[in-house]
């Protein structure tokens, strides 16, 4: 079929940021290709990028603003799943309602009674505007997003140790690897295109891979060594590797001397952490630990790639710190093919954080507590800005329950799928006074909202995404949004302008409001602020953003058009961008070693709940499933599956395809059993994509004290035959074995 | 003790998995006072089962079947002491713990149950005899096929062994087992089974009857025999009888043209078939030895031992002067000396390409230090070619000696012999010969008491003519489909596993020992100025004494055809001789007095090639021969490059049409152009030469195809 | 730095870095050599042979996509011998598969004046359309056996190994293990094979269905 037009854009799924060619005919995308000569994917895509973007044409897309028919009140908030419960509204009415209700809360309870979730799937420009709106107009730093739920542990650790929190290498460098560690990452399923480059580094260039993971993921088939540690014993393992490196004098003395600090305390702390000690804790043979340490330390260029298995833990920060220690110790950072690489989950989780979508920083991690920085933004935005960091995503839930947060503006995210201990989170949502959601579909969370604003999907708008290796890339409009849906940046722009007008107009009626100071500033600067908000294209938003953000300054839309993408930091128009970081120094100057002690704070198995549960993603689905379950992808994996080792299955006399009830102390779900050696004995795995069997019903809301990230990867559960079998879903009659469920290239 | 007998019978008849016996045995061994707690039973079984290869203890089915199908057990739930027995045991909730115990009637017998069970275990075991045999093959693969050889290269051999263990074909579980053992994707394995005609992924008859369909055999009535067999068995060629006894499989040239018409039943050769002797075929009881050599010639070098020694006897071989060359090499010559001697002999490759052997060795020896290999190409399967087979069957030690000398000359510590799959007796000869030589210290480490180390691995082909092409052969040796490689780079620098490799024909290597003993000059003096030494010719077709003849270059063609091979049958006239095989040229009666040599054949555009001569008398329709030959190429094209993949097929179709009298005016033109394009653009010699015979025929008989 | 090599292509002098293929060297002076199987992202299998050219001193034509330039080499890309080779190969291909959805090959047919009916009447590659998964179809009647899909599925990109070759010769075709349906193989549906297929043999299901719908209308 011949396309009317072919539009180059960036894939809306994972953090690899693949470049896609959207082939459009009659305003519909009928084929997705990839350009062969462009980074980062060089013609490659995975199933989601190539076949899974048809959700944009799904009949369930939201097409007009919707307002709840029955007014909601705190404590009595209900789900409204059916269109019957909603009435279509004009944009005018819906936006007016949003502004009025938000301002009402703000004037009554203060700006901090309102919080927002910005969105790791929206563009940099969308997110920048939203956080700017909340900080400069609403007047609160309560801005956060799901990075809290994925790489907060890594980010916190990297900030502590080297004061930078992005992947230090580019995807194109993978060919230079000589040895690499993948830990806590199911790369082949979650970053499929990156995994193809990693696999080739092995099969074509002879790189050696060490997988350190309790699960036997696909990458293990390519690994020289697989260390299968007990759940949540990572720090013991990595400390023991460091112990070996120190004892056998394999560390990089020059690097340690010139570029790090805290070495002597650190090696003292390693003294007792022998491989034999670690073997008792981790279950990994001491020899395996020695071998891994030698391979990593002796390689000319070695890198570490990690994912949620490291960070989504009550020890998330500690886990990441032990990895950073190891890299600093061996000097495996700052050269091509070395480095520390947290693989980012969402397409723009990097960019959303870069754009200031976090409670303690502005763009590019500029700390809002530093007066000079704050003043720079006040000047740019013509407003006065709050000085204290705001609430994190996980804290928001708790603060709603204490009553200090009343209003919630959620752009795109679906916390009632992604938060841990969903029953707890749901209780919180029910307590809200006002809840506005901005989305492309109904989801498990926004069905509790008062107003839903229909927004445009990735193929329907302009902007930029920043991928996992810090490459800023363009998103381009290929088709029109359905009905009256609009791009997020346009919606936020309108809401902001309306809010500004309303404050100028009505602030005087609220002389005692906690926001009086800010109201006056806004009244004073209203004209300038309105003019400042008068964006006609995302290009202008980006230009404003780079003007206040040195590391982005050299990146312009013109350059992106010409070069395809640019890696930040890129401080000037002449600067080529930075594919790998830290060649000469770290943003913190020297890298700091941190002493980490092994502790065990997670929920442990016992008589009643004898199995560990780990959660994560599948190749064929995406996060809360909002997009993928509205796409062709749902046909290949239409229902939730519980992965269990054959020995456990035999022990409990389960067979492939059995319906089982999985319960923890927090809830119960019913799903189908998938018997596979992917999961180790004694631990099961459940993907969290399926609303009808939401894995996070079971997970624990314990959080890491520093990163505030929940303990998603471990909790105690039991599995019993299901009491009743859920209703039939399309495709569920096909035996699991025949759905392409198990994809080992060599049968196991 | 009837219920246990019933159980034993059920296992013997595959009514219940053998794993059930395993679980029962675990129970009996670990029960205390005949009681064992369920979780302990499972845990112990899992641990013990994991180390029994071929047993899938993790599958709960066998255990559950054991419990619920036989009235052996009773289960008491710990929680509430509820008791279960018989069919109820089917529905146990395994999250609960139970005390399992054997029922009294199982124990009430003269013999202790342990004793009876051990007897059963000894008799049957947990793994079927086939699985056990195959597991042993997998486990011992390094000692069977050689240490330090990349795993994948064992695939073809393992497939052969699996077929011989599992009723002649490869089932999905077997392929999956191989996939796991070799860490090879299933698709890769399947691709290999698809390429080689001798692997079957569907059930086949217990006896596969392959009757040769090529010229020498069809001229003596092989097709009538096949038709008659098919009629009697009520199947078409390529099919299997309903009772699963027979599969009839047409095959192109078995390389038994000296015994035409010939057939292969499984691995057994049947010679000089006739319509009244088909019972021998069906029973697979030939009344002749598997190797019966028809040879002749004046100066026997390669043939010197054929029919005079027992090819299985290393002693015989040594009594006839065998090993003298190797001893001389190891004791007196440097590798350079050997190469110089071979160069001085002016020996050229006898596989058809006639590349100077000494040069090839020198190129390979000249590579920087590192692993390198020598391969003996014993994949002879050209139409009408069988001279290598005679050497393989009749004098294996000589070939190995030649191969060892080649390895010594180029510095290789590993040699390979790749033997055509259909030549199973030859393969067995070599396996035996290699074992005997190793035993005697003439293979392996410290050969003949020197510091020369060399291992020889014997490998089987599996029904692909293309693997006679040297790079395709290397691919096949590496365990892949036999696709020829692009050249350059050449094998002398990038051969097997990318390492420098010499690949020599059987006859070439068979000449080496004599050259070493008598010197290069001696050998060179035997032939003509430009064609040194002797050459073996496979003479077949319309001839009185088909066989292999060794002649010094320079003798007239007539001498070979008439004096040695006995000439044409009385009352017939010589029409043509196809020399050089399927990609050869047609010589006419007027060429009979031409001396056989490269230089004398050039002006008459004759090909020496591998020394194949198929003789046609005046009764033969050459158009049929051309159609046959082109059909052979179409069947044997690997399908890699377009010109050969499609061109060889189209050529065969046109010639088939002409044979059936439906030729078109432009056919000759088309065939000439097609042949030219195939010669110009095909990757390997097969495609390049597939049209040569046709082009030659058109040149010699311009009206033949009109 | 690589050494440079000077050669002539159709009598023009050209200097390129050592290791450059003849095709790339020709392209650098504006001579376009046709290719079918070649793709810059993959290991060239050099099997279609339409890129073959005459190299002085070589017995056979040489595939320009893989043969590296040599010092003093004389290459001719448009002799009668070369033109005949291209034409006949295209004629052979057209006699075997449906080339309707291979616009680049159609162009080459037009340029060479290949007679697509010259070898009519022989065995064609005949396969039913395989629609066995939710993402793409396989119409092997349009498959030209360029190997690209097998290569991307294996070592060249995906390391997934769902695809292989069935049979050989003209009967050779792209196959899965025992010709199983795609969901039963190791396929992860990345569709990299679909993206690189030069004909209509591999196609996304959405595109396929909408074409069928258009046809019905």
Model description:
The complex is a heterotrimer of chains A (748), B (706) and C (217). The model of chain A has no long low-confidence stretch (mean pLDDT 93). Chain A has 25 helices and 28 strands. Chain A is globular and about 70 Å long. The longest helix of chain A has 19 residues. Chain A has a seven-stranded mixed sheet with strand order 5-4-16-15-14-6-7. In chain A, strands 22-24-23-28-21-25 form a six-stranded mixed sheet. The two termini of chain A are 41 Å apart. Chain B has six domains: 122 residues; 67 residues; 77 residues, Glutaredoxin (3-Layer(aba) Sandwich); 226 residues, 3-Layer(aba) Sandwich (Rossmann fold), CATH 3.40.50; 84 residues, Ubiquitin-like (UB roll); 79 residues, de novo design (two linked rop proteins) (Up-down Bundle), CATH 1.20.1440. In chain B, α17 runs parallel beside α24 and α27 packs antiparallel against α28. Chain C starts with a strand and ends with a helix. In chain C, the strands form three sheets. Chain C has a five-stranded mixed sheet, with helices on both faces. In chain C, a hairpin with a 6-residue loop joins β3 and β4. Chain C has 217 residues and is of the alpha+beta class. In chain C, α2 crosses α3. Chain C is globular. Chains B and C meet through α11, α27, α28 and α29 of B and α2 and β7 of C.
Distance between the termini of chain A: 41 Å
What is the number of beta strands of chain C?
9
* Topology-level CATH name of the largest domain in chain A: Rossmann fold
Q: What distance lies between the first and last C-alpha atoms of chain C, to the nearest angstrom?
A: 60 Å
Mean pLDDT of chain A: 93
The Cα radius of gyration of chain A reads 25 Å
Shape field of chain C = globular
Percent helix range of chain C: 25-40%
- What is the count of helical runs of chain A? 25
Work out the oligomeric state of the chains in this entry.
heterotrimer
Strand line-up in the sheet with most strands of chain C = 2-1-5-3-4
**CATH topology-level fold name of the largest domain in chain C:** Alpha-Beta Plaits
Which two chains share the most extensive interface? B-C, 43 and 45 residues
Low-pLDDT stretches of chain C are none
Number of strands of chain A: 28
What's the structural domain tally of chain A? 4
Binned, the helix content of chain A reads 25-40%
- What class do helices, strands and sheet pairing of chain A give? alpha/beta
Instruction: Quote the beta fraction of chain A.
Output: 15-25%
């Amino acid at each position: 079929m011949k396309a009317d037009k072919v539009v180059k854009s960036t894939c809306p799924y994972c953090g690899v940021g693949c470049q896609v060619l959207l082939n459009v005919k009659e305003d519909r995308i009928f084929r997705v290709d990839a350009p062969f000569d462009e980074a980062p994917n060089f013609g490659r895509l995975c199933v989601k990028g190539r076949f899974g973007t048809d959700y944009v044409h799904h009949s369930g897309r939201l097409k007009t603003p919707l307002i709840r028919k029955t007014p909601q009140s705190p404590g009595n908030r209900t789900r409204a799943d059916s269109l019957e419960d909603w009435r279509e509204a004009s944009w005018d009415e819906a936006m007016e309602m949003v502004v009025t209700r938000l301002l009402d809360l703000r004037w009554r309870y203060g700006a901090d009674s309102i919080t927002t979730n910005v969105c790791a799937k929206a563009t940099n420009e969308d997110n920048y505007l939203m956080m700017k709106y909340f900080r400069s107009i609403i007047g609160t730093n309560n801005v956060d997003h799901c990075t809290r739920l994925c790489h907060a542990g890594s980010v916190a650790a990297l900030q502590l140790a080297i004061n930078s929190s992005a992947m230090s290498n580019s995807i194109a460098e993978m060919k230079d690897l000589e040895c690499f560690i993948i830990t806590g990452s199911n790369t082949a399923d979650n970053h499929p295109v990156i995994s193809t480059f990693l696999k080739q580094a092995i099969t074509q260039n002879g790189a050696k891979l060490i997988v350190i993971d309790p699960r036997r993921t696909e990458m293990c088939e390519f690994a020289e060594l697989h260390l299968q540690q007990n759940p949540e014993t990572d720090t013991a393992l990595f400390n023991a590797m460091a112990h070996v490196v120190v004892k056998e004098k394999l560390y990089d003395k020059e690097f340690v001397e010139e570029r790090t600090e805290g070495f002597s305390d650190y090696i003292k702390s390693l003294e007792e952490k022998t491989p034999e000690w670690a073997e008792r804790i981790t279950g990994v043979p001491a020899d395996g630990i020695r071998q891994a340490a030698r391979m990593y330390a002796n390689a000319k260029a070695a890198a570490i790639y990690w994912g949620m298995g490291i960070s989504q833990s009550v020890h998330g920060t500690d886990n990441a710190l032990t990895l950073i220690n190891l890299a600093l110790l061996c000097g495996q950072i700052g050269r091509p093919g070395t480095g520390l690489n947290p693989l980012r989950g969402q397409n723009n989780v990097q960019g959303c954080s870069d754009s200031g979508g976090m409670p303690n920083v502005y763009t590019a991690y500029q700390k809002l507590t530093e007066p000079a920085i704050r003043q720079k933004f006040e000047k740019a935005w013509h407003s006065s800005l709050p000085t204290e960091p705001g609430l994190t995503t996980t804290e928001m839930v708790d603060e709603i329950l204490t009553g200090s947060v009343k209003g919630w503006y959620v752009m795109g995210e679906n916390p009632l799928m992604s938060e841990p201990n969903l029953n707890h989170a749901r209780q919180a949502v029910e307590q809200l006074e006002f809840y506005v959601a901005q989305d492309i579909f109904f989801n498990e969370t926004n069905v509790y909202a008062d107003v839903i604003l229909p927004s445009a999907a990735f193929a329907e708008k302009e902007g930029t995404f920043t991928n996992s290796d810090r490459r800023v890339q363009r998103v381009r409009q290929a088709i029109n949004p359905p009905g009256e849906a609009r791009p997020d940046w346009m919606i936020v722009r309108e809401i902001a302008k309306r809010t500004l007008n309303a404050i100028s107009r009505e602030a005087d009626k609220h002389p005692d409001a906690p926001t009086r100071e800010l109201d006056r500033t806004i009244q004073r600067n209203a004209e300038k602020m309105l003019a400042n908000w008068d964006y006609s294209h995302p290009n202008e938003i980006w230009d404003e953003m780079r003007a206040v953000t040195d590391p982005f300054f050299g990146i312009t839309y013109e350059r992106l058009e010409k070069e395809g993408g640019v890696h930040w930091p890129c401080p000037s128009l002449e600067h080529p961008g930075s594919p790998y970081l830290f060649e000469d120094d770290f943003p913190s100057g020297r890298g700091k070693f941190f002493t980490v002690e092994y502790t065990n704070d997670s929920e442990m198995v016992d008589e009643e709940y004898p199995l560990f549960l780990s959660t994560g993603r599948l190749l064929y689905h995406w996060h809360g499933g909002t997009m993928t379950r509205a796409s062709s992808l749902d046909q290949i994996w239409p229902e939730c599956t519980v992965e269990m080792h054959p020995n456990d299955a035999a022990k409990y006399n389960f067979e492939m395809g059995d319906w089982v009830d999985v319960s923890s102390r927090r809830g119960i779900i019913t799903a189908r059993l998938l018997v596979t050696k992917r999961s180790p004995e004694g631990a099961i795995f459940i993907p969290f994509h399926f609303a009808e069997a939401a894995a996070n019903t079971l997970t624990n809301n314990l959080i890491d004290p520093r990163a505030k990230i929940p303990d998603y990867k471990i909790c105690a559960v039991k599995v019993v035959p299901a009491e009743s079998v859920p209703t039939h879903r399309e495709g569920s009659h096909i035996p699991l074995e025949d759905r392409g469920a198990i994809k080992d290239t060599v049968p196991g | 003790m009837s219920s246990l007998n019933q159980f034993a019978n059920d296992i013997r008849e595959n009514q219940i998995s053998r794993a059930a016996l395993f679980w029962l045995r675990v129970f009996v061994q670990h029960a205390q006072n005949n009681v064992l707690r369920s979780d302990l039973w499972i845990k112990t079984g899992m641990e013990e089962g994991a180390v029994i290869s071929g047993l899938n203890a993790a599958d709960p089915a066998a255990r559950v079947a054991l419990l619920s199908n036989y009235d052996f057990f009773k289960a008491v739930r710990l929680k509430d002491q509820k008791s279960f027995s018989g069919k109820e045991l089917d529905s146990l909730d395994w999250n609960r713990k139970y005390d399992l115990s054997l029922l009294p009637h199982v124990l009430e017998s003269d013999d202790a149950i342990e004793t009876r069970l051990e007897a059963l275990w000894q008799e049957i075991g947990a793994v079927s005899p086939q699985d056990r045999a195959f597991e042993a093959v997998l486990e011992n693969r390094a000692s069977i096929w050689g240490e330090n050889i990349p795993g994948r290269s064992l695939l073809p051999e393992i497939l052969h062994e699996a077929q011989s263990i599992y009723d002649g074909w490869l089932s999905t579980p077997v392929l999956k087992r191989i996939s796991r053992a070799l860490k090879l994707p299933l698709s890769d394995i399947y691709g290999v089974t698809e390429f080689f005609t001798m692997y079957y992924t569907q059930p086949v008859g217990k006896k596969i009857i392959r009757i040769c369909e090529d010229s020498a055999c069809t001229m003596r009535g092989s097709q009538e025999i096949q038709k008659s067999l098919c009629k009697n068995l009520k199947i078409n060629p390529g099919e299997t009888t309903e009772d699963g006894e027979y599969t009839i499989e047409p095959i192109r040239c078995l390389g038994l043209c000296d015994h035409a018409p010939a057939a292969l039943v499984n691995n057994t050769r049947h010679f000089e078939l006739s319509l009244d002797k088909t019972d021998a075929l069906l029973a697979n009881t030939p009344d002749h030895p598997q190797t019966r050599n028809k040879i002749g010639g004046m100066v026997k070098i390669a043939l010197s031992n054929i029919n005079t020694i027992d090819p299985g006897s290393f002693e015989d071989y040594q009594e006839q002067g065998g090993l003298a060359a190797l001893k001389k090499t190891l004791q007196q010559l440097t590798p350079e000396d050997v190469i110089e001697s071979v160069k001085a002999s002016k020996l050229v490759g006898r596989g058809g390409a006639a590349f100077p052997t000494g040069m090839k060795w020198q190129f390979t020896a000249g590579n920087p230090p590192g692993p390198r290999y020598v391969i003996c190409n014993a994949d002879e399967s050209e139409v009408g070619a069988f001279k290598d087979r005679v050497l393989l069957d009749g004098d294996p030690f000589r070939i190995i000696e030649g191969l060892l000398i080649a390895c010594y000359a180029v510095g290789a510590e590993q040699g390979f012999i790749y033997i055509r799959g259909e030549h199973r007796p030859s393969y067995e000869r070599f396996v035996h010969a290699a074992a005997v030589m190793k035993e005697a210290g003439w293979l392996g480490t410290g050969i003949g008491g020197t510091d020369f180390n060399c291992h020889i691995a014997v490998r089987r082909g599996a029904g692909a003519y293309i693997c006679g092409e040297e790079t395709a052969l290397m691919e096949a040796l590496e365990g892949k489909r036999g696709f020829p490689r692009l050249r350059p780079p050449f094998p002398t620098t990038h051969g097997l596993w990318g390492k420098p490799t010499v690949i020599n024909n059987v006859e070439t290597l068979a000449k080496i020992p004599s050259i070493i003993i008598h010197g290069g000059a001696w050998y060179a003096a035997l032939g003509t100025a430009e064609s040194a030494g002797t050459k073996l010719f496979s003479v077949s077709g319309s001839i009185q004494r088909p066989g292999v003849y060794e002649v010094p270059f320079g003798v007239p063609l007539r001498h070979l055809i008439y004096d040695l091979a006995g000439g044409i049958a009385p009352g017939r006239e010589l029409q043509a001789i196809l020399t050089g095989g399927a990609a050869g040229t047609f010589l006419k009666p007027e060429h009979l007095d031409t001396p056989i040599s490269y230089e004398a054949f050039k002006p008459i555009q004759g090909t020496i090639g591998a020394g194949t001569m198929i003789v046609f008398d005046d009764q033969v329709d050459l158009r049929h021969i051309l159609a046959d030959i082109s059909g052979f190429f179409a069947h044997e094209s690997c399908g890699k490059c377009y010109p050969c993949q499609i061109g060889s097929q189209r050529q065969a179709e046109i010639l088939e049409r002409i044979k059936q009298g439906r030729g078109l005016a432009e056919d000759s033109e088309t065939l000439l152009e097609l042949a030219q394009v195939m010669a110009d653009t095909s990757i390997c010699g097969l495609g390049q030469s597939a049209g040569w015979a046709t082009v030659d025929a058109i040149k010699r008989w311009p009206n033949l195809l009109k | 730095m690589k050494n440079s090599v000077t050669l002539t292509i159709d009598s023009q002098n050209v200097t390129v870095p050592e290791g450059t293929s003849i095709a790339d060297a020709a392209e650098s002076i504006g001579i376009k050599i046709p290719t079918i199987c070649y793709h810059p992202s993959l290991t060239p299998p050099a099997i279609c042979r339409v890129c073959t050219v005459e190299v002085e001193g070589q017995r056979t034509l040489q595939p320009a996509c893989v043969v590296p330039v040599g010092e003093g080499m004389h290459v001719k890309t448009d002799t009668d011998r070369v033109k005949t080779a291209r034409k006949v190969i295209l004629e052979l291909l057209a006699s075997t598969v449906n080339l309707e959805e291979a616009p680049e090959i159609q162009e080459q047919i037009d340029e060479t004046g290949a007679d697509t009916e010259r070898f009519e009447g022989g065995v064609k590659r005949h396969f039913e359309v395989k629609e066995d998964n939710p993402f793409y179809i396989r119409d092997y009647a349009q498959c030209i056996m360029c190997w690209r899909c097998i290569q991307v599925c294996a070592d060249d990109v995906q390391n997934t190994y769902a695809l292989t070759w069935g049979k050989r010769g003209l009967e050779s075709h792209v196959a899965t293990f025992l010709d199983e349906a795609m969901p039963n193989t190791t396929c992860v549906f990345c569709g990299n094979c679909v993206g690189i297929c030069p004909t209509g043999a591999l196609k996304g299901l959405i595109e396929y269905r909408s074409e069928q719908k258009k046809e019905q209308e």
